[in-house]
Amino acid sequence: MKTAFIISTMVFMTWAQRPSPTDSRPIILAFGDSLTAGYGLPRGFGYPERLQRKLDQRGYRYRVVNMGISGDTTSGGRARIKAGLDLKPSIVILELGANDGLRGLPLKQTQANLEEMITAFQKSGATVVLAGMTLPRNYGAVYVRSFEDVFRDLARKLNVPLIPFFLEGVAGNPKLTLDDYLHPNADGYVIVTDNVLKTVEPLLKK
Question: Which residues are marked as active site?
Answer without folding.
Answer: 34, 180, 183
